[in-house]
Every structure is written in C-alpha cells, then in structure tokens.
From TrEMBL:
Pfam families registered for this protein in UniProt: MarR, ROK
Domain HTH marR-type: 20-63
CDD domains: ASKHA_ATPase_ROK_BsXylR-like
The name this protein goes by in its record: ROK family transcriptional regulator
Amino acid sequence: MTRTRVNSALIRRINTGRLFHIIRQTPGISQQLLSRASGIDPATISIIITNLEAASIVRRETDAPTGRAGRPTIALSIDARAGYLAGIGIEPDTIRIVLATIDGAQCADVSVPGSDDPVRAARAVREGIAAALRSVKAKRDALLGVGVALPGLVSLEGSVVFAPNLGWRDLDFAADLARLLACPIRLENDVKAAAIAEHLFGASRDITDFVYIMGRSGIGGGLYMMGELYRGPHGLAGEIGHMKLVPEGRSCSCGARGCFEAYVSERAIRAELAARGHKVGGVAEILRDHEAGHEVVRAVLDEAGTYLGLALANLINIVSPRRIVLGGSLARLAPALLDAAHRALERNALAAIMRDVELVVSAMGDDAAPMGGIALALQQFLDDPPIRLGRGREGRAQTS
C-alpha cells in the first residue's frame, strides 16, 4: 500500500493565508477566537502567528486591564507598516496605479498615460509606482508586490494570450515588468482580478460561490467556485460575454455573432441607440434620458435588460451560484436594466435554483480593476512570501 505524502509547505501556505485574511477582516481578534474561526489547531496557529510577527506582518497588542482575574487577552492585527502593494489597471489610454497597505487599505492613487507598446507601458507602470511611493514618502524597497489587471485573455502561467484592445498577443508582460521593477508580479484578466477583489475586499467576503460580471466596452466574467476563482485548464475560463444568445445575431468583436456582449455591453447599447437615431451620450446621460421616459432609450435598455436576464438564467441553471454580482457599466446601468432582467430570469431560470440566488450590484465601481491588482499582489505575497516569513526569530525554519 502506497502512502500519500503530505505537502507540508503547501498546507502551511494555505493556513497562513487563511489566518492572515481572518485577522485582516477581524482586527483585534484573539488567538482563541482565531482558532474557532479558522478550524486550525492552536499549536499550528501559534507557530504561524510567531512567524508572521517575526516578519512584521502581524502585531500583538495586550488589551487594557479589566480588573478581572485571568491572563490578559492578546489582540492580533495586521501591521500596515510592513510595506505596500501596488494594483495596476491597464487600458490603452490610461494606466491606473493604486497603492495599498497589506491589509488592502488604499493610500495612493496615480494615473499615467497608457500605451499599446508593451515596453512603453511597462515604463509607465514603473514611473507611476515611483510617483505613488513618493506620495506616501516610502522607499522603493517598501514595495512587496505588484498585481496587474488588463483586458484580455491571460494564461495560467500569467502571460497575455491575446489583448485585442492593446494589440498584445503571446506576450509575457509580467516577466518583462518583473525585470524592470525587481519585484514579484502577478498578472490576470481584469474581470477575474476584480472577482478576486470582490471576494477579498467587497461585499462577497463570506460567499464561496458567486459569478462576477463586469461590463465595459465588452462583457467579462469571473467564476468564483468553492472558495476560489475557476480558471479552467488553460486559465481562460469565464468568457461569459461570448455566451451565444441569438443564433446568427449581431456581430461581436470576437468575430462571432449573437454573443451576450453584442447586446448588453455599454458599447452595444450605445451602438443600438445610435442606430435608432438617438443622440448618444455617456452612461449618466443614458440613465437621465431613461428616467425622463425617452421612448427609444427605454426600449433599448428594456431589450438589453431582457438579454441580461436570459444570460443570467443560463448561468444560474448551469453553475447554481449563491450570488451574481454586476460590476462596471452593468452596475451603473442596473437601475435601468434590472426590471427587465428580473422578468427574463423568472421566465427562464429554474425556480428551484433561482430562489437561492442573490443578484447584487458591486460597490467597487471604477476601483474594480486596480483593486483586483491589489488582490493579485496580496495573493502573490501570501503564496510566495519572502524567506523570512517562514522562519522564526533566530532564522530557523518553523513548521506547522
């Protein structure tokens, strides 16, 4: 009989990540409550917390005396002074850099001109990060990791398979950027990154199964299943925008016809309004005209809402998520789309599944992509931490 070998290093990383996020979300938690919340035994927690404290990631504070008998309670918190993470949202015309402490709190926000030339884009990222660090009076070595979120297909290895808006194909942008910054880099599709941010920092912290759908010029999706993002065997899963809704329907930017994004994306809605003779404005103007009862605008948005509901019904019937989260332009247009979407959902979703599904609007707004970058950088930091994170005060490796 062959005995299965236990990967203790992997288990230690998983446990470290779980404890880190519980402390991050519950600052001041005691070690006893941490054990209850995580299900990890106290001895293992003690070793991990000692390592995190030695690495200046976690700090212990003794509660003020209460006059009661017994040992004072030790409160655990993430030490925001440990360093910074940078979240990068890349678009062809703009690159946005958000700097955050390791507990996810934003402390700087810088935008620099974008470029479809990867070399210039990488240099712009470097300049933006330098400006963000200067704004908080931090040195370069305070940067612990960088997460990059960009619109396009990204492989499991973190290379750009195809980013049509940038014109990038088969490009290892993360490796190029890592050489330029001398810092750990993690790169992901912007919507998948936003889904991770929704789970770590948004309203879906306690939801292990949800679908995140973000609208912009197109429609992207992230499938968060059983507590982690589902990427598929090649890392490309979640292209919800290219679900086929209308056989031989409207042409899509992907080259096919009848795709979800060809009916519900902001670009599709604006194109349909223009085709029906309505002067096209931004989302705010579209919503204003909808509220004012403009007949064409109401008809176009009612149609888009119906297709949104049909697409969501397909997802619900197949995936059975606890929650569906709308982000980006879908979040902004939600007041004008959801009535029709709910009607289509009632007609097409299986009632036994639909009754347990929430449909909510993300509160992250325009921060979704850069906060997705912060989430990626934090994952990278916890998955592959500095050597000191796995060692005790005397430098000897600690086990758990």
